[in-house]
Amino acid sequence: VFSALDKDVDAEDHGKGQRSPKLCGTNYPVSIAFIVVNEFCERFSYYGMKAVLTLYFIHYLNWDKDLSTAVYHAFSSLCYFTPLLGALIADSWLGKFKTIIYLSIVYVIGHVVKSVGAIPDVGDSTLHIALSMVGLVLIAFGTGGIKPCVAAFGGDQFDEENVKERTKFFSIFYMSINAGSVLSTIVTPILRGDVKCFGGDCYALAFGVPAALMVIALVVFISGSGLYKKSPPEGNVLVRVCKCIGFAIQNRWRNSKKSPKKSHWLDWAEEKYPKRLIQEIKMVFRVLVLYIPLPMFWALFDQQGSRWTLQATRMNMDFVMGVCFCVVKMLNALLILVFIPIFDMGIYPLIGLCRIKLTPLRKMAVGMILAAIAFCAATVVEINVIKTVVEPSPAKESLVQVYNLMDSDVTVQFPGHTVFSDPLKPNEDPSGYTSLPLTGESQLYTVTVIHNGAESQCELTFTERTAYSLFLHTAQSGDIVCKLVNDHITKSETGAAYLRFINTHTENINITVGTDEFYAAANYGISQNISVPRGEYNGVACETNSNQYHIDLGLLDFGAFYTVVLSKVGLTTIKMEDIQANNIHITWQIPQYVFLTAGEVMFSITGLEFSYSQAPASMKSVLQAGWLMTVAFGNVIVLIVAEGAGMEQWAEFLLFAGLLVAVSIIFSIMAYFYTYVDPDQLDKTFREDTDDEKVKSSDSKKKETVSLTDMPKQTKM
């Protein structure tokens, strides 16, 4: 590594003058092949590690879901704030090439430390946590630090006249990101779950493979060292920029009344700083102002991994034409690989034939609208999904549903409320949970049950924010028995079904469903409510002290809650559906992914190239970092809205869609007044001005020399 760096010191001194060999007679430099492969391996490394990170926190470090989620998002945010540090190092100190190499080494060390922390035999849980956190911090600095440099370094490889090829490079670059993401999210979960080591899931291997890919990424990048165009760093850019801005503000404040007005407030710095620097700062500021509305797009985009995933867990995830939950989770990355060539070779040329000028900023505005449409589609899906979901009751309310396990109709009356006005038929599915108002945190109700003309009263206590099942059956004495049971109503995140048994038999029963064991005591004992994987369950073994039976439960569907009554006659069953199964298929999420991915192609890839093309040479990495920081601020918006809004999910989706439409209108107005610049042309202009000044200076010196020659020589006294 260090020998490669030593050899490239001279190359950086004349980086802009160097021309890289081309690929097969095209205008694409050979060097970009090494950069694209490097990016593929690095993204495989990053996304592969993240694919199992939450599970690692929960199952290996034994953290709860809240802590695991918080640390996961903190790590993700850090990965998008550190690009600014990497950009400053690249543009001010080391240059992009050296910055990528040094921070990639930090990246590799982070992966290794993280993998060692996942080995059970190394230390105790405290050491595992310490190594994991140190590893994640190093990875965040590594991946964030090189993120703005790699894209900008790839753009540097192209000659000034190859603008179209450079634009397509950013599309290829983006494809390599998503290809690495798709492959890694398939491979690393398999390594974790299917390969066993140290007596359990092999997290060490799941983290070790991404570490190996990062090593490969580093080796590939260094291999192309002799082919790269390397622009030298411009000195401490940030300090010079800050001083220039500070001087302009100070000078304007002091002389605003004395001196004539300037066309731009930065022009007040002309007394001390060169015009070139001032012009470059203006360019960066104008782009950064355009970035202000952009985090809203990322606020919607990043909900794929949170809100949309949670929506998917409440949907039917059965296989249809090979489509399943795991495929839908990767749908965005898969569609990116398909959409990029379609847009570049099909849609954009067709729009051009229609004589519609689709500028980069117009593309980004259309991308925002497409993302808003995606969230409108998600809203429609959510409205239908929640029909099968039981929402928890608010304060001073309970939820209750009634099971009639008797031989004829019953009527249930709650004093002061017509909660159940119609008679309940025997052994039928409950009509659903009904809201029961309370006078305080809890309330005692005297419930009247009418059966065959006879009335019976039960005193039952209900607590707020709790769901209950009220089972009505007849005791051996003939009296009506009311049995109130607390219910679990939250659907499984994996789409599993929940199941419980009521044993009306006179003997205790043990039931085995798949790998799960249920126990139901005799005489209307109720088993635990346990989640079981979705599937057909026939020939289920049931054992009593005196006999063994087999029962057929049939299909236990995604997200459904079932109560199975084991009757007294032999061992027949009555299966009742307490909470409806997820009846909206997960493929209904495909339209929202299609719209969002199309929006991403038009917004993200274009923005990446726009950030490069509009940045002066000395600040390309800094502006790339600014672009990446819009992603971090997008996540902050999600947290603010999600925590502060307190609204239903479909309404939140609609709110985000409306906000993005409003932001896209604001952005379109800002874009209308934006004037595109060519940083390379700026370089030429200032270079010519500098050359003219040198010529003028040279001419004046010649005149001085001539005049001195013509002067008469003095004689010595």
Automatic annotation (TrEMBL):
Annotated TM spans: 70-88, 100-119, 125-146, 167-191, 203-222, 283-300, 320-343, 364-386, 622-642, 654-677
Region Disordered: start-end pairs: 1-20, 687-717
Gene Ontology molecular-function annotations: symporter activity
Listed Basic and acidic residues bias regions: 1-16, 687-705
Sorted UniProt keywords: Membrane, Peptide transport, Protein transport, Symport, Transmembrane, Transmembrane helix, Transport
Family: Belongs to the major facilitator superfamily. Proton-dependent oligopeptide transporter (POT/PTR) (TC 2.A.17) family.
The protein, known as: Solute carrier family 15 member 2
Organism whose genome encodes this protein: Cyprinus carpio (Common carp)
Lineage: Eukaryota, Metazoa, Chordata, Craniata, Vertebrata
